[in-house]
Specification:
With about 200 residues, the protein is of the alpha/beta class. The chain has nine helices and seven strands, in the order ααααβαβαββαβααββ. The radius of gyration is 15 Å and the shape is globular. The model has no long low-confidence stretch (mean pLDDT about 90).
């Protein structure tokens, strides 16, 4: 299987520059390597959402692979955020999103908690992507009973601070774990991931 930019993604290169450069070949490269996490996240969230017509936010939407999985699962009102303008151009061409917005790496989310029934961070947090501090930003963007679906791949799971951040929310009762499953992420490079759905309390 081809790896191409995948090697660079886990090599510590500046994420903004990397994803701008990767935008036109991203979908093909991930499809070639069997990218499974978006479909797994979308299915898990859909099973736990009482009303899939409610608006959801696809944080780190990239080229829209996550949005496509969410739409195929039955979600109809999806807004996307990403730091890469080039990735957002690719996402726009899929005609899946109500809105698409570029956001800076350290910016607060541009919505009011409660605007979205769920936030998705699919393949977003981990080595070569967003830092674990983004988890707090996402939780701040939810109102009570809001859902967060996210994933940690094997490389993120190897760094204890990732699951420790989640456990901190669970231990303090500020979130409730609804779903956790280990499975395929990028089988072409022998990488798996945990998919989680939590509810803000």
């Amino acid at each position: 299987m081809s790896k191409g930019f995948l090697d660079k993604a886990y090599g510590g290169q500046d994420a903004h520059q990397l994803y701008d450069a990767w935008a036109t070949s991203y979908d093909h490269e991930l499809a070639e390597n069997g990218y499974a996490t978006p479909g797994r996240c979308a299915a898990a969230l859909h099973a736990l959402m009482p009303d899939p017509t409610l608006p959801i936010l696809d944080f780190g939407c990239g080229t829209g692979l996550s949005g496509l999985a969410l739409a195929l699962a039955g979600f109809r009102t999806i807004d996307g955020l990403d730091l890469s303008a080039d990735m957002l151009q690719q996402a726009a061409s899929k005609n899946l999103y109500r809105t698409l917005t570029q956001i800076g790496a350290d910016e607060a989310l541009p919505h009011t908690p409660g605007d979205y029934a769920a936030i998705c961070a699919i393949g977003v947090i981990g080595t070569g992507a967003a830092p674990i501090s983004v988890f707090d930003t996402l939780m701040d963007g939810l109102a009570p009973e809001g859902r967060l679906v996210f994933s940690f791949n094997d490389r993120a799971l190897a760094e204890p601070e990732h699951e420790a951040k989640l456990q901190g929310y669970l231990d303090t009762g500020t979130a409730r774990l609804l779903f956790k499953e280990y499975g395929e992420h990028l089988p072409g490079i022998n990488l798996k991931s945990n998919v989680y759905v939590i509810e803000k309390t």
